[in-house]
From TrEMBL:
It comes from the Bacteria. Signal peptide: none annotated. InterPro entries: Chr_Tranpt_l_chain, Chromate_transpt. The chain crosses the membrane at residues 40-65, 114-135, 141-164, 176-196, 208-229, 241-268, 288-313, 320-339, 351-371, 383-399, 405-422. It is found in: Cell membrane. It is a multi-pass membrane protein. This is Chromate transporter. It holds the Pfam family Chromate_transp. Keywords: Cell membrane, Membrane, Transmembrane, Transmembrane helix. Belongs to the chromate ion transporter (CHR) (TC 2.A.51) family.
Length: 423
């Protein structure tokens, strides 16, 4: 059975294989490494170029950064890049964006980190703002497009399910982590606040060497939370059952910040928290929320840019910018604040185990969110057999076929299917 540290090494090796790191004849000691002298404007344009080509998700984005900045331009040594990647994969936040911030700091200090991070995220931000504007003006509420959008939402559910399994394979590697994930799955469905399984899962796995105590730590807070819920509390706390609440910019910022701080193991882990604070307050429908995830999957940007779309639908341009600020703030802050201490902090074994436990709880929470989204989508479906067939085809494709084009192709196929064969 692999330890969490070995799992991280395995992920790094997988990305190295994709990047073509093997057989390059480069190592930390071969030649001098260092970025060229760049102005802040030139640094911004360089990472803006990366952002314009950031299709295909984090693995493809990291591969692109490594090929250009490590293999071709030799900003840092391959070994240092791999260690940095291992550290960032443990921390919350989109790791490709965090890599850009860190490499920008290598070039021009903290100002360079801010400039590089902004450059990488600007293309996706601008495109998603445009998508949000087009959606609210021409698409939202258009009866003629209802079937098309429902087809997209069905295939996005298949993409999310595949992401749950993929993330779980990397995180859930022993019996205790499986228990933590199952508690994370059950908690939202019972109406337990998300932070209860996160905290209990992290603390429990820190005591993994004492299994009985760990199980007690895991279950006791959740049982107490369920016992303290009011009668019917689990129904009242489900996102689709909560009444409309007033939209405020601070609340949108907190929704984004919560997602940014709790994004462990991939951008899909931000989905439950943003959904709870937007769909859960009656600000946006589950269907529109799924449309935002679909758009994020086809744009050149970290997937968490779906929060920008959600913010736009809820609060216009100001809402989009505020929720985006909250979502990306941790990705900037971890590198900017802990630049010199990042690797030493994450090397702490106790912290390692705690973060692994939190990540396992997040896997369960995403699975619960998938169930809730699937239930909400099923309520809008008239022909269940056709919807299940489309979801099955999408699931087979996303499971078996690899490549940066797969997600955009599946989303486009879902749209065409929904247009031709209304569900």
């Amino acid at each position: 059975m692999r330890t969490p540290g070995q799992a991280i090494v395995a992920q790094v090796r997988s990305i190295r294989r994709m990047c073509g790191a093997k057989g390059r004849g480069m190592n930390d000691k071969s030649d001098a490494f260092g970025p060229p002298r760049l102005s802040l404007w030139a640094l911004f344009l360089k990472f803006l170029g990366f952002g314009l080509l950031a299709f295909g998700g984090p693995v493809a984005q990291i591969a692109m950064l490594r090929k250009v900045l490590v293999e071709q331009e030799r900003w840092i040594a391959p070994g240092r890049f791999n260690r940095l990647l291992a550290v960032l994969q443990i921390l919350p936040g989109p790791e490709a964006h965090e890599l850009c911030v860190h490499l920008g700091m290598v070039a021009r200090g903290r100002a360079g980190g801010i400039v590089a991070g902004l450059g990488f995220m600007v293309p996706g931000l601008v495109l998603m703002l445009a998508a949000g504007a087009a959606y609210t003006r021409w698409i939202e509420g258009n009866i003629g497009l209802a079937g098309l959008l429902l087809g997209v939402q069905i295939v996005v559910l298949a993409i999310i399910l595949r992401a749950v399994v993929r993330i779980g394979q990397h995180v859930v590697e022993d019996g205790l982590l499986l228990c933590i994930a199952l508690v994370g799955l059950a908690s939202p469905l019972l109406g337990v606040p998300f932070y209860v399984p996160l905290a209990s899962g992290g603390i429990a796995y820190a005591f993994a060497h004492r299994p009985i105590l760990a199980i007690a730590i895991l279950l006791t807070p959740v049982i107490l939370a369920v016992a303290l819920l009011p009668v019917g509390g689990s129904e009242q706390l489900r996102p689709q059952a909560i009444a409309h609440a007033a939209v405020t910019l601070p609340m949108l910022f907190v929704a984004g910040l919560k997602g940014g701080l709790l994004t462990f193991g991939g951008a899909y882990t931000a989905i439950p928290y943003v959904r709870a604070d937007t769909v859960g307050r009656g600000w946006i429908s589950d269907g529109a929320f799924l449309d935002g995830i679909a758009l994020a999957g086809v744009l050149p940007a970290p997937l968490v840019i779906f929060a920008t779309f959600t913010g736009y639908i809820v609060g216009g341009p100001a809402g989009a910018l505020v929720i985006t600020l909250g979502m990306f703030l941790p990705a900037f802050a971890f590198s900017l604040v802990f630049f010199e201490r990042l690797e030493a902090v994450i090397a702490n074994p106790a912290l390692h185990h705690g973060l692994t436990g939190v990540a396992a709880a997040v896997v369960g929470i995403i699975a619960a969110t998938f169930i809730q989204l699937a239930q909400a989508t099923a309520m809008r479906v008239d022909h269940a057999w056709a919807a299940m067939a489309l979801a099955g085809v999408a699931l087979v494709l996303v499971w078996r076929v690899k490549g940066a084009w797969v997600t955009p192709a599946i989303v486009a196929g879902g749209a065409i299917a929904g247009w031709l064969f209304p569900f």
